[in-house]
Design brief:
The longest helix has 26 residues. About 10% of the residues have low confidence. The chain has an 8-stranded mixed β-sheet with strand order 1-2-4-3-5-8-6-7, with helices on both faces. It is built from 11 helices and 8 strands. It has 2 domains: about 50 residues, no CATH class; about 260 residues, Zn peptidases (Aminopeptidase), CATH 3.40.630. It is of the alpha/beta class. Bound molecules: zinc ion (ZN).
Protein backbone atom coordinates (compact mmCIF):
# COMPACT_ATOMS: atom_id res chain seq x y z
CA UNK A 1 0.00 0.00 0.00
CA UNK A 2 1.24 3.45 -0.89
CA UNK A 3 1.20 6.27 1.61
CA UNK A 4 0.45 9.80 0.54
CA UNK A 5 3.47 12.05 1.15
CA UNK A 6 2.90 14.33 4.15
CA UNK A 7 3.23 18.02 3.09
CA UNK A 8 6.17 19.74 4.69
CA UNK A 9 5.29 22.39 7.36
CA UNK A 10 7.55 24.74 5.42
CA UNK A 11 4.98 24.67 2.62
CA UNK A 12 1.79 24.45 4.69
CA UNK A 13 2.46 27.29 7.16
CA UNK A 14 3.14 30.12 4.66
CA UNK A 15 0.19 28.88 2.61
CA UNK A 16 -2.13 28.95 5.64
CA UNK A 17 -0.90 32.47 6.45
CA UNK A 18 -1.55 33.64 2.89
CA UNK A 19 -5.05 32.17 2.92
CA UNK A 20 -5.91 33.79 6.26
CA UNK A 21 -4.67 37.22 5.09
CA UNK A 22 -6.74 36.90 1.90
CA UNK A 23 -9.73 35.87 3.98
CA UNK A 24 -9.28 38.92 6.21
CA UNK A 25 -9.09 41.30 3.23
CA UNK A 26 -12.11 39.63 1.67
CA UNK A 27 -14.15 39.84 4.88
CA UNK A 28 -13.28 43.43 5.74
CA UNK A 29 -14.10 46.43 3.58
CA UNK A 30 -11.56 49.28 3.17
CA UNK A 31 -13.27 51.25 5.96
CA UNK A 32 -13.03 48.35 8.42
CA UNK A 33 -9.40 47.73 7.48
CA UNK A 34 -8.58 51.37 8.14
CA UNK A 35 -10.32 51.22 11.51
CA UNK A 36 -8.53 48.01 12.34
CA UNK A 37 -5.21 49.61 11.43
CA UNK A 38 -5.98 52.62 13.62
CA UNK A 39 -6.98 50.36 16.49
CA UNK A 40 -3.77 48.38 16.07
CA UNK A 41 -1.70 51.58 16.17
CA UNK A 42 -3.46 52.59 19.36
CA UNK A 43 -2.94 49.14 20.80
CA UNK A 44 0.78 49.50 20.34
CA UNK A 45 0.51 52.20 22.97
CA UNK A 46 -1.05 49.50 25.14
CA UNK A 47 -4.48 51.13 25.34
CA UNK A 48 -7.17 49.20 23.56
CA UNK A 49 -5.71 45.74 23.13
CA UNK A 50 -8.92 44.08 24.25
CA UNK A 51 -10.91 45.93 21.62
CA UNK A 52 -8.51 44.90 18.91
CA UNK A 53 -8.73 41.26 19.84
CA UNK A 54 -12.51 41.24 19.86
CA UNK A 55 -12.71 43.35 16.70
CA UNK A 56 -10.50 40.94 14.78
CA UNK A 57 -12.39 37.94 16.07
CA UNK A 58 -15.69 39.57 15.19
CA UNK A 59 -14.51 40.47 11.72
CA UNK A 60 -13.73 36.84 11.06
CA UNK A 61 -16.82 35.22 12.54
CA UNK A 62 -19.53 34.11 10.12
CA UNK A 63 -22.74 36.05 9.61
CA UNK A 64 -24.83 33.27 11.16
CA UNK A 65 -24.46 31.30 14.39
CA UNK A 66 -22.04 28.41 14.26
CA UNK A 67 -23.68 25.31 12.87
CA UNK A 68 -26.73 27.26 11.67
CA UNK A 69 -27.69 28.55 8.26
CA UNK A 70 -29.54 31.76 7.46
CA UNK A 71 -32.58 29.61 6.56
CA UNK A 72 -32.59 28.08 10.05
CA UNK A 73 -32.54 31.50 11.71
CA UNK A 74 -35.38 32.63 9.42
CA UNK A 75 -37.29 29.47 10.32
CA UNK A 76 -36.74 30.17 14.04
CA UNK A 77 -38.07 33.71 13.54
CA UNK A 78 -41.17 32.41 11.72
CA UNK A 79 -41.87 29.90 14.50
CA UNK A 80 -41.41 32.62 17.12
CA UNK A 81 -43.63 35.15 15.35
CA UNK A 82 -46.39 32.57 14.98
CA UNK A 83 -46.16 31.70 18.67
CA UNK A 84 -46.63 35.31 19.77
CA UNK A 85 -50.28 35.87 20.73
CA UNK A 86 -52.63 37.80 18.44
CA UNK A 87 -53.58 37.12 14.84
CA UNK A 88 -51.05 37.97 12.20
CA UNK A 89 -50.92 37.11 8.47
CA UNK A 90 -48.44 34.33 7.72
CA UNK A 91 -47.25 36.07 4.57
CA UNK A 92 -46.26 39.19 6.51
CA UNK A 93 -44.44 37.05 9.06
CA UNK A 94 -42.48 35.32 6.30
CA UNK A 95 -41.60 38.62 4.69
CA UNK A 96 -40.29 40.26 7.81
CA UNK A 97 -38.45 37.12 8.98
CA UNK A 98 -36.66 36.89 5.64
CA UNK A 99 -34.97 40.18 6.64
CA UNK A 100 -33.74 39.22 10.12
CA UNK A 101 -30.06 39.56 10.93
CA UNK A 102 -27.82 38.23 13.63
CA UNK A 103 -25.10 40.00 15.59
CA UNK A 104 -22.15 37.74 16.28
CA UNK A 105 -22.14 36.27 19.78
CA UNK A 106 -25.83 36.98 20.36
CA UNK A 107 -26.87 33.63 21.84
CA UNK A 108 -28.94 32.76 24.89
CA UNK A 109 -27.46 30.72 27.73
CA UNK A 110 -28.93 27.65 26.02
CA UNK A 111 -27.43 28.61 22.66
CA UNK A 112 -30.56 29.90 20.98
CA UNK A 113 -29.68 32.71 18.55
CA UNK A 114 -30.98 36.17 19.46
CA UNK A 115 -31.77 37.70 16.07
CA UNK A 116 -32.85 41.22 15.16
CA UNK A 117 -34.59 43.21 12.47
CA UNK A 118 -33.32 46.57 11.23
CA UNK A 119 -34.71 49.33 9.07
CA UNK A 120 -32.65 52.44 8.53
CA UNK A 121 -34.21 55.81 7.80
CA UNK A 122 -33.15 57.90 4.85
CA UNK A 123 -34.37 61.11 6.47
CA UNK A 124 -32.09 63.80 7.75
CA UNK A 125 -31.97 64.07 11.53
CA UNK A 126 -33.26 60.51 12.00
CA UNK A 127 -32.59 59.08 15.45
CA UNK A 128 -31.38 55.58 16.08
CA UNK A 129 -33.97 53.71 18.10
CA UNK A 130 -33.30 50.31 19.61
CA UNK A 131 -36.43 48.39 20.60
CA UNK A 132 -36.58 45.12 22.48
CA UNK A 133 -39.30 42.84 23.79
CA UNK A 134 -39.54 39.68 25.86
CA UNK A 135 -36.54 40.45 28.05
CA UNK A 136 -38.97 38.92 30.55
CA UNK A 137 -40.02 35.58 29.09
CA UNK A 138 -43.46 35.46 30.74
CA UNK A 139 -44.71 38.71 29.21
CA UNK A 140 -46.00 37.15 26.00
CA UNK A 141 -48.07 40.09 24.66
CA UNK A 142 -44.92 42.26 24.60
CA UNK A 143 -43.76 40.23 21.60
CA UNK A 144 -46.87 41.31 19.69
CA UNK A 145 -45.71 44.94 19.77
CA UNK A 146 -42.27 44.06 18.40
CA UNK A 147 -43.82 41.93 15.66
CA UNK A 148 -46.28 44.68 14.68
CA UNK A 149 -43.49 47.27 14.58
CA UNK A 150 -41.22 45.08 12.45
CA UNK A 151 -44.03 44.39 10.04
CA UNK A 152 -44.94 48.06 9.81
CA UNK A 153 -41.31 49.04 9.25
CA UNK A 154 -41.32 46.67 6.27
CA UNK A 155 -44.08 48.75 4.69
CA UNK A 156 -43.02 52.33 5.47
CA UNK A 157 -40.07 54.66 5.04
CA UNK A 158 -39.58 55.46 8.72
CA UNK A 159 -38.67 58.86 10.08
CA UNK A 160 -36.16 57.22 12.44
CA UNK A 161 -33.81 54.26 12.08
CA UNK A 162 -34.97 51.21 14.01
CA UNK A 163 -33.38 48.03 15.22
CA UNK A 164 -35.75 45.58 16.89
CA UNK A 165 -34.91 42.53 19.00
CA UNK A 166 -38.32 40.83 19.36
CA UNK A 167 -37.21 37.97 21.64
CA UNK A 168 -34.46 39.17 23.98
CA UNK A 169 -34.76 36.21 26.37
CA UNK A 170 -35.59 33.15 24.24
CA UNK A 171 -34.90 30.56 26.98
CA UNK A 172 -37.18 32.32 29.47
CA UNK A 173 -39.85 32.67 26.80
CA UNK A 174 -39.63 28.95 25.98
CA UNK A 175 -40.14 28.19 29.69
CA UNK A 176 -42.68 30.91 30.34
CA UNK A 177 -40.46 32.42 33.04
CA UNK A 178 -39.47 36.02 33.70
CA UNK A 179 -35.83 34.94 34.21
CA UNK A 180 -33.45 33.28 31.77
CA UNK A 181 -32.39 29.59 31.82
CA UNK A 182 -30.08 30.26 34.79
CA UNK A 183 -32.78 31.93 36.81
CA UNK A 184 -31.44 35.47 36.32
CA UNK A 185 -33.61 38.55 35.68
CA UNK A 186 -31.83 40.10 32.66
CA UNK A 187 -33.34 43.47 33.56
CA UNK A 188 -31.32 43.44 36.81
CA UNK A 189 -28.13 42.07 35.27
CA UNK A 190 -26.82 45.13 33.36
CA UNK A 191 -23.47 46.18 34.85
CA UNK A 192 -24.60 49.53 36.26
CA UNK A 193 -21.89 51.55 38.01
CA UNK A 194 -23.35 50.52 41.36
CA UNK A 195 -24.00 46.86 40.55
CA UNK A 196 -21.41 45.36 42.86
CA UNK A 197 -22.31 47.48 45.85
CA UNK A 198 -26.07 47.44 45.50
CA UNK A 199 -27.66 44.87 43.15
CA UNK A 200 -27.57 41.79 45.37
CA UNK A 201 -28.11 43.85 48.50
CA UNK A 202 -31.19 45.60 47.09
CA UNK A 203 -32.54 42.25 45.95
CA UNK A 204 -32.09 40.72 49.41
CA UNK A 205 -33.66 43.74 51.11
CA UNK A 206 -36.73 43.29 48.91
CA UNK A 207 -37.20 39.69 50.00
CA UNK A 208 -34.86 37.81 47.62
CA UNK A 209 -37.63 37.06 45.13
CA UNK A 210 -36.29 34.45 42.69
CA UNK A 211 -38.07 36.27 39.85
CA UNK A 212 -35.84 39.28 40.36
CA UNK A 213 -32.48 37.62 41.01
CA UNK A 214 -29.83 39.95 39.50
CA UNK A 215 -27.28 37.18 38.89
CA UNK A 216 -23.86 36.39 40.37
CA UNK A 217 -22.28 39.51 38.80
CA UNK A 218 -23.14 42.33 36.39
CA UNK A 219 -23.32 41.14 32.74
CA UNK A 220 -22.91 37.53 33.88
CA UNK A 221 -25.59 36.40 31.40
CA UNK A 222 -25.14 35.96 27.67
CA UNK A 223 -28.48 37.67 26.95
CA UNK A 224 -27.29 40.79 28.81
CA UNK A 225 -24.00 40.77 26.92
CA UNK A 226 -25.85 40.39 23.61
CA UNK A 227 -27.86 43.56 24.30
CA UNK A 228 -24.72 45.41 25.39
CA UNK A 229 -23.06 44.33 22.15
CA UNK A 230 -26.02 45.81 20.26
CA UNK A 231 -25.69 49.09 22.17
CA UNK A 232 -21.99 49.35 21.29
CA UNK A 233 -22.56 48.39 17.71
CA UNK A 234 -25.82 50.22 16.90
CA UNK A 235 -25.11 53.27 19.12
CA UNK A 236 -28.78 54.01 19.83
CA UNK A 237 -30.04 57.51 20.63
CA UNK A 238 -33.06 56.03 22.34
CA UNK A 239 -34.20 52.67 23.69
CA UNK A 240 -37.71 51.25 23.91
CA UNK A 241 -38.28 48.16 26.06
CA UNK A 242 -41.69 46.51 25.86
CA UNK A 243 -43.16 44.78 28.92
CA UNK A 244 -46.47 43.81 30.53
CA UNK A 245 -48.67 44.08 32.60
CA UNK A 246 -48.60 47.40 34.50
CA UNK A 247 -50.38 49.54 31.90
CA UNK A 248 -48.07 52.56 32.06
CA UNK A 249 -45.36 54.35 30.09
CA UNK A 250 -42.30 54.53 32.30
CA UNK A 251 -39.67 57.00 31.14
CA UNK A 252 -36.03 57.22 32.20
CA UNK A 253 -34.77 60.34 30.49
CA UNK A 254 -34.64 64.13 30.71
CA UNK A 255 -37.66 66.00 32.11
CA UNK A 256 -40.02 66.82 29.26
CA UNK A 257 -43.69 66.92 28.29
CA UNK A 258 -45.31 63.84 26.81
CA UNK A 259 -48.05 63.26 24.24
CA UNK A 260 -51.27 61.74 25.52
CA UNK A 261 -51.74 58.00 25.08
CA UNK A 262 -55.12 56.38 25.75
CA UNK A 263 -55.17 54.26 28.91
CA UNK A 264 -51.38 54.36 29.32
CA UNK A 265 -50.39 57.14 31.74
CA UNK A 266 -46.82 58.42 31.79
CA UNK A 267 -44.98 57.79 35.03
CA UNK A 268 -41.46 57.45 36.32
CA UNK A 269 -41.14 54.28 38.37
CA UNK A 270 -37.48 54.95 39.09
CA UNK A 271 -34.85 52.42 38.20
CA UNK A 272 -33.14 49.55 39.97
CA UNK A 273 -29.51 48.48 40.19
CA UNK A 274 -28.78 46.38 37.10
CA UNK A 275 -31.85 47.58 35.20
CA UNK A 276 -31.74 48.76 31.60
CA UNK A 277 -33.05 52.21 32.61
CA UNK A 278 -30.30 52.76 35.14
CA UNK A 279 -27.61 51.33 32.88
CA UNK A 280 -28.42 53.23 29.69
CA UNK A 281 -29.99 56.44 31.01
CA UNK A 282 -28.24 57.13 34.30
CA UNK A 283 -24.85 55.65 33.33
CA UNK A 284 -24.79 56.28 29.57
CA UNK A 285 -27.18 59.21 28.87
CA UNK A 286 -29.38 57.25 26.48
CA UNK A 287 -33.08 57.70 27.37
CA UNK A 288 -35.10 54.52 27.93
CA UNK A 289 -38.85 54.27 27.41
CA UNK A 290 -40.43 51.24 29.06
CA UNK A 291 -43.82 50.43 27.59
CA UNK A 292 -45.83 48.39 30.07
CA UNK A 293 -48.90 47.03 28.31
CA UNK A 294 -51.89 45.92 30.32
CA UNK A 295 -51.94 42.53 28.61
CA UNK A 296 -54.12 40.53 26.30
CA UNK A 297 -56.89 43.05 25.42
CA UNK A 298 -54.30 45.38 23.91
CA UNK A 299 -53.62 42.77 21.25
CA UNK A 300 -56.82 43.60 19.43
CA UNK A 301 -55.53 46.96 18.47
CA UNK A 302 -52.77 47.09 15.90
CA UNK A 303 -53.62 50.77 15.46
CA UNK A 304 -52.63 51.27 19.08
CA UNK A 305 -49.25 49.68 18.37
CA UNK A 306 -48.75 52.06 15.43
CA UNK A 307 -49.57 54.94 17.74
CA UNK A 308 -47.10 53.66 20.34
CA UNK A 309 -44.39 53.42 17.70
CA UNK A 310 -45.03 56.96 16.47
CA UNK A 311 -45.04 58.30 20.01
CA UNK A 312 -41.79 56.47 20.78
CA UNK A 313 -40.25 58.08 17.70
CA UNK A 314 -41.50 61.56 18.63
CA UNK A 315 -40.30 61.21 22.23
CA UNK A 316 -36.93 59.94 20.97
CA UNK A 317 -36.44 63.06 18.85
CA UNK A 318 -37.56 65.42 21.61
CA UNK A 319 -35.53 63.71 24.34
CA UNK A 320 -32.48 63.70 22.17
CA UNK A 321 -32.69 67.45 21.60
CA UNK A 322 -32.92 68.05 25.34
CA UNK A 323 -29.96 65.76 26.05
CA UNK A 324 -27.90 67.45 23.33
CA UNK A 325 -28.72 70.93 24.57
CA UNK A 326 -27.72 69.88 28.10
CA UNK A 327 -24.39 68.63 26.79
CA UNK A 328 -23.59 71.87 24.90
ZN1 LIG B 1 -41.15 43.00 32.48
Amino acid sequence: MQHKPTPSPLVVLPLAYLVSVMLLIWTLGPKELKELKELKELSEQGEVLEDVVSYEEEALVPLWPEGMTQEQVIELCIENMRRIPGRFPRQEIEELCSKVQWLSGCMSEESVPIYHYEKLSEQEGAKRIFALALIHGDEHPAGAVARAWMSRLERIQPRNSWRVVPVANPDGWARGTRTNARGVDINRNFPTDDWEQTALKAWQERGSQPRRYPGPSGASESETRCLMHHFREFQPDFIVSVHTPLGVLDFDGPPMSFPHVDRLPWISLGHFPGSLGRFMWRDHDVPVLTIELKGQPELDSLAKFDQLQDISGAVAIQANEIVRRAED
